[in-house]
Design brief:
- With about 100 residues, this protein is an all-alpha fold.
- The protein has one domain.
């Protein structure tokens, strides 16, 4: 379904479904930030309370973790949103 990191193919290589009209817009970025924030915030609090690392170490580790998790989740969430649009026949996906 994906041609590059976030670029959709024009059509499916297996069934020929047209993806030109799929519109994910800012949805994947919003959901990625929401999910990463809800996962990392409690973890940040837990690590700070239990281990008390130096602030620069804590910031460095969690910055790297947030960036890595965001880069991992973003294309997958975009694929899920396009699949949701296809399943609901939204934005030009027709039976």
């Amino acid at each position: 379904m994906m041609l590059g990191y976030l670029k959709l193919r024009d059509e499916c290589t297996v069934c020929g479904e047209n993806f030109r009209h799929a519109r994910a817009d800012d949805g994947p970025a919003y959901l990625t930030i929401l999910l990463v924030g809800h996962l990392m915030a409690p973890l940040l609090h837990l690590v700070f309370v239990r281990f008390r690392p130096e602030p620069i170490v804590l910031a460095g580790i969690f910055t790297l973790g947030c960036v890595a998790l965001s880069l991992y989740l973003l294309p997958r969430i975009k694929g899920m949103l396009v699949a949701f649009q296809w399943a609901r026949r939204m934005h030009g996906f027709r039976a």
